[in-house]
Amino acid sequence: MPEPPILDYRAAVLAALAGEMRRDPAVILLGEDVGAAGGVFLQTAGLLGEFGAERVIDTPISESGAFGIAVGAAMTGQRPVFEVMFGDFMTLVMDQLVNQAAKVHYMSAGQFSVPLVLRTAVGIGASLGPQHSQSLHAWAAHIPGLKVVMPSTPWDAKGLMAAAIRDDNPVVFFEDRMLYTRKGPVPEGELVIPIGLAEVKRPGTDVTIIALSRMVQVALDAAEALAAEGIAAEVVDPRSLLPLDLPTLVASVKKTSRAVVVDGGYRQYGVTGEIAAALTEEAFDWLDAPVLRVGAADVPIPFNRSLEALVLPDARQLAGIVAKLVRGLP
Amino acid sequence: MTEPLGRLTSLSIFRRMLLMRHFEEAVIRLYNEGRFVSHYHIYIGQEATGAAVLEALGQDDLISTTHRNHGHIVGRGADAGRAMAEILGRATGFNGGRGGTLHICDASRGFLSTSAVVGGCASLATGAAFGIKVNHQARVATAFFGDGALEEGVVIEAFNMAALWKLPVVYICENNSAGAVGMQGGGYPTAITATDSFCRLPAAYGIPTKVVDGTDMAAVYRATVEARQHCLAGDGPVFIEAFTDRWPGSNPLWPELATVTELAQAWEPDSIGGAHAEWIRHHDPLLRAVRDLLAEGHLTRSEIVAEDQAARWRIEQAITFAVDSPLPLPETAEQGVFA
Predict the structure, then answer these.
(1) Cys staple from B214: which of B49, B68, B107, B299, with CB 3.0 to 4.6 Å?
(2) Chain A closest-CA separation from residue B20 CA (Å)
(3) Contact B112/A71, CB-based, under 8 Å?
(4) Considering its fold, how many domains does chain B have in total?
(5) Which residues in B lie closer than 8 A to residue A77 (C-beta atoms)?
(6) Which residues, numbered 129 to 158 in chain B, qualify as contacts with chain A under a Cβ-Cβ cut-off of 8 Å?
(7) Cβ of B135 and A77 within 8 Å?
(8) Cis peptide before A300 (omega within 30 of 0)
(9) To the nearest whole angstrom, how far is the Cα of B291 from the nearest Cα of chain A?
(10) Using CA atoms, how far apart are residues A189 and A7, in angstroms rounded to an integer?
(11) In which domain, by residue range, is B77 found?
(12) Would the CB atoms of B113 and A113 count as touching at under 8 Å?
């Protein structure tokens, strides 16, 4: 088999979108500037030209109304991919997402389903300021009826976007914008990765680092540094928060007896706490130390580059935290 | 008064109204008997609007509605037994007891999910209209909502996109605020709404608007037929505002009136009495429909009594079905979160 081509993350998602739009005429794309402009991060470039204005629809800056329209369209046979330009603007779609999309199937006793993808760009590190830098995936992950996907590599992004579009449920797809230019191998043609399968990104025996989205690379870099110190860290990427592949995480922790959960979202009441609690419940007898949570500082994300850099730990800091856990807490 | 409708159309609308009225009276009765626990919203007083709109809609048209949905559901011909069973939280209800009074939904009759967050029904119907348009289907979507929904921004956003994309959606605003507590004259809640005409909101986006007397079945029917034709011609959305005087029983939220409407009051006005005589005499759309049907020679008094008995019988059957229905099985509580 030939080596798969190298694509960046943004191109990988775009390839999945275009592939699914070619495959199924019910797939439509809606969002602010997704058409003529091709997306503020050029993440939808070329789609308008190929699929036309009936399927690639520029919406007004009316996140709530436009998302509600997407939900109504999904309930009546379309498969909308709805783009929320910045993850922070999810606040504007929450009523439609939480009170409509997530509940319709259950509330109607299965009379309706909502096959829809909400994709949005999140992530600290681009000096976008407090209203354009948050990662609010924990909000979505709190709601029964939603699936929540956060791929970390171009390969996963392509395969999981295809799966999200084919899913008959509302899927919230978080893309860290700091990953958009990250390159990696991506198979050509159809690639569908089932939602709900974690992947061990680096095997190890001394400690498990469970990391999400862009923090997977931070964890891998930390693991590399730890290897030089004689600590073999296993890096596991859940890839989706809902459903969460807890068995794979638990199996890793039973092997290593220590775990650190790393996420780009806020730490308080966040996904790190949820995963840490689940591990404690499932693998308490195997744990040699408390499960640690590493996330963004619980502050509005500052604009200033040097202040912003302090909000989220880098690989060196993470390696320090992990090393301390392995060698014994003070 | 608008020009009367033909006999068959009038009779069909009247039958829908009778079902709505007796269904709601049964809901109040069952609540007072302790058959269910919830808050709930009664459609009494708005029957002419809903029944005439439903009469004008096509079989394949799609409908989204709100917490005040009972009338729309049974008026559309959905099984009243399954609707009542849903209100009682039974397994046989349209939503298997998971939705209750606020969310009754019969997809087979074209209902989309019923939204109790009041603006939501407008965006869902607009989304359904989007699907209708891109699939080149010959049908329309309809959203029923009260005047309160226009206080939510999502509705205004939906107006803009429906107009921009010329979507086939008919917005039916059932303005039931006239006569409501805390509201000033003219039907607009001036304490919380700065406009004296809700039609100005859709009109700002170029959406044609029409104000009708919501107790005048002919006016509502004709407005809806026209709106539907406008949509089917590809000319985009239409907004209809139908005024009704709020039924005193909905004051403030849970009905305090446990009445059974006596249609004979239409021809025996002296028999009307009590604290709410004014509303019954002048604002009850059902009694008005009876008077109109008699005046137009469409039905005789005895035929009206027979129609009333038939509707009451159907609702009694529905009650029996609902009350005798099983509760949902405990193990179903966590089933069906995902498709």
Answers:
(1) B49
(2) 22
(3) no
(4) 1
(5) 131, 135
(6) 129-132, 134-135, 141, 153-158
(7) yes
(8) no
(9) 39
(10) 13
(11) 7-251
(12) no
Q: Residue A64 is nearest to which of B112, B153, B336, comparing CB atoms?
A: B153
CB A94 within 8 A of CB A139: yes
**Residue B181 belongs to domain with CATH number:** 3.40.50.970
Q: How far is A129 from chain B (nearest CA, A)?
A: 26
Interchain CB contact of B204 with A (< 8 Å): no
Average pLDDT, integer, range B28-55 = 94
Would you say residue B266 lies in a domain?
no
pLDDT, average across residues B100-114? 93
Task: Choose among B120, B122, B339: nearest Cβ to A169.
Answer: B339
ipTM of the modeled complex? 0.93
Give me the total of CB pairs closer than 8 Å, taking one residue from chain A and one from chain B: 145
Task: Kindly state whether B206 is in contact with chain A, defined as any CB-CB distance less than 8 angstroms.
Answer: no
**A151: CB partners within 8 A, 6+ apart:** A157, A159, A160, A161, A173, A175, A213, A239
Q: What's this model's pTM, rounded to 2 decimal places? A: 0.95
Do A6-185 and A199-327 show the same overall fold?
A: yes
Residue B276 lies in a domain: no
B334 touches chain A (CB under 8 A): no
- Total number of residues shown for chain B: 339
Residue B273 lies in a domain: no
Fold of A199-327: Rossmann fold (3.40.50)
Chain A residue whose CA is closest to B336: A106
Taking only the tens of pLDDT, chain A with its 330 residues reads 789 999 999 999 999 999 999 999 999 999 999 999 988 888 899 999 999 999 999 999 999 999 999 999 999 999 999 999 999 999 999 999 999 999 999 999 999 999 999 999 999 999 999 999 999 999 999 999 999 999 999 999 999 999 999 999 999 999 999 999 999 999 999 999 999 999 999 999 999 999 999 999 999 999 999 999 999 999 999 999 999 999 999 999 999 999 999 999 999 999 999 999 999 999 999 999 999 999 999 999 999 999 999 999 999 999 999 999 999 865
Residue in chain A lying closest to B62 (CA): A76
Q: Do A144 and B128 touch (CB under 8 A)?
A: no
**B36 found inside a domain:** yes
Q: In CATH terms, is domain A6-185 a member of 3.40.50.970?
A: yes
Q: Do A169 and B99 touch (CB under 8 A)?
A: no
Residue ranges per structural domain of chain A: 6-185, 199-327
What's chain A's length in residues? 330
**CB–CB of A67/A38 below 8 Å?**
no
- Which positions of A are annotated as active-site residues? 63, 132
CA distance B93 to chain A (A): 9
Residue of A28, A68, A106 lying closest to B124 (CB–CB): A68
